[in-house]
Amino acid sequence: MTLSNLLIVSAALFCVGLLAALSRRHAIFILIGIEMMLAAANINFIAFWRFGPQPAQPTGVMVAIFAIAIAAAEAAVGLAMVIAVYRHFRTTNVDQLNRLKG
Amino acid sequence: MSTVAFTIIAILTLAAALAAATLPKLMHAALSFAVMFVGISAFFFLLGAEFVGLVQIFVYIGAVAVLIVFTILLTRHDTEKVRGFNWNGVVVAVAVFAGLIWAITKTKSLSQAPLQIEPVTVQRIGELLMTSYVWPLQCVGVLLTAALIGALILVMEEKRE
What we know:
Chain A has a single domain (about 5-95), classed as Orthogonal Bundle (Helix Hairpins). Chain A is about 75% helix and about 0% strand. Chain A is built from three helices and no strands. The longest helix of chain B has 25 residues, at about 50-75.
């Protein structure tokens, strides 16, 4: 287990999240992809803290905790938006939400 | 020992992530999403950040996955056929992955072994949260309150005139 292996795993996770966010048409899949990308960033924070020059100071742990809190807030608001959009348009397919398209 | 555990966890996490990204049924994807977060928490345990791993399990599997399942059930619609995959996204994701792998393998100083450290106790984290990180903590509290109120207002039933 070296730092570069961890970084490769988190890069793969980020790209799978990017794939989900870009290629799926369902709004909930896009949120799942965004959560995956945030989790990959968290793995990077912890890995760089653990392998860094000063692991005695738990800076990476604190940043990861705050990132988790903010990701949870983002998920709550995003899912509320999905429900609100579904009530108005009766769909969660982002391709059909094109009322503002010029 | 650690290498074997790392390989198993990496395979589990990436397989669950791929399943969450590509499975056609939303409910299956949400359950794979929960499995993926178990794998990520296992990474945190392996790296000595036990508290973050536990918080991850509580927040993501306990709250976010359940929220996603609720949203799927509230917005279920089986009538329309949703157009499937957009292959441009695959191209972009593979390109980004190739760029990241190139950057990681080009960097020389990434293959060192980790230093031995004292385990980070919850007491230490609590002390830090109440001393050096007290302002970020308050800001996160305000942010969570605002997000809670905002989510409630977004989903509140509109009054019919």
